[in-house]
Amino acid sequence: MKRLLMLLAVLLPWSLRRAFLQQQFGFQIHPSARIGFAFIFPCRLIMEEGTSIGDLTVAKNLDLLHLKAHATIGRGNWITGFPLGDSPHFAGERDRRPELILGEHSAITNRHLIDCTSSISIGAFTTIAGFQSQFLSHSIDIRANRQASRPIHVGSYCFVGTDCVLLGGAALPDYSVLGAKSLLNKSYTQTHRLYGGVPAREVQTLPADSAYFHRREGFVV
């Protein structure tokens, strides 16, 4: 029955779909928020003022998808995780949260893969740019011979270039850039830096007065 309701919801025009999603699934969707022709069915969905999700994006097997005010997710993104439950996978990770949280005015552009087996958080005014970046919060622990997951955090006022890979446990600090085609596999703390390479390392310092770091709107003209 639930699958039938999901299919029906996808086919409804947005003027009817928002009310249907709120009534049938308990989603919290601001009147100014919008979802395109997309399959968006986390356990909990919170879309604040001015948020949007583009066509052909899929979001499933998440405990929570939360878009804070004016955050956007573009077209053709695949956002999934491993749900909480009785499965032997990740059974020892009691604090695991399969969720994606986007800060105010943040943006995920088009055709990215976001694995939210563990929590992924993206700070305010941050852009996940270009195409085909991968956020992979889980892998196999070779020593323990079992599935393992770790959170990924991208700070505020960051820019992640096209075709990057971010692995579980990675963190990009505030006011930072991750160069195109980079692999971020550790947690960095120094702000106002360009990180890049495979694996990513600190490349250079960025000027603190850069206009991108002082935006009041997420959209860049």
Q: In this structure, how is the largest beta sheet organized?
A: 9 strands, mixed
Counting structural domains, the number is: 1
CATH class: Mainly Beta
Helix/strand structural class: mainly beta
Chain-averaged pLDDT? 96
Supply the number of helical segments. 2
Which superfamily, in CATH terms, is the homologous superfamily? Answer: Hexapeptide repeat proteins
The percent range for helix content is: under 10%
End-to-end C-alpha gap: 45 Å
Instruction: Classify the beta-strand content into a percent band.
Output: 35-45%
The CATH topology comes to UDP N-Acetylglucosamine Acyltransferase, domain 1
Strand order within the widest beta sheet? 2-5-8-11-14-19-22-24-25
Order of helices and strands: HHEEEEEEEEEEEEEEEEEEEEEEEEE
Radius of gyration: 18 Å
At CATH's second level, what is the architecture? 3 Solenoid
Shape: globular
- Low-confidence sequence ranges: none
Explain what you see:
The chain has helices at residues 2-11, 14-25; strands at residues 28-29, 34-35, 39-41, 44-47, 52-53, 58-60, 64-67, 72-73, 78-80, 99-102, 107-110, 113-115, 120-122, 127-131, 134-136, 138-141, 146-149, 152-154, 159-160, 165-167, 171-172, 176-178, 183-184, 193-196, 201-205. It is globular and about 55 Å long. 40% of the residues are buried. The protein contains two helices and 25 strands. The chain has a nine-stranded mixed sheet with strand order 2-5-8-11-14-19-22-24-25, with no helix packed on it. The protein is mainly β and 221 residues long. It has one domain: Hexapeptide repeat proteins (UDP N-Acetylglucosamine Acyltransferase, domain 1).
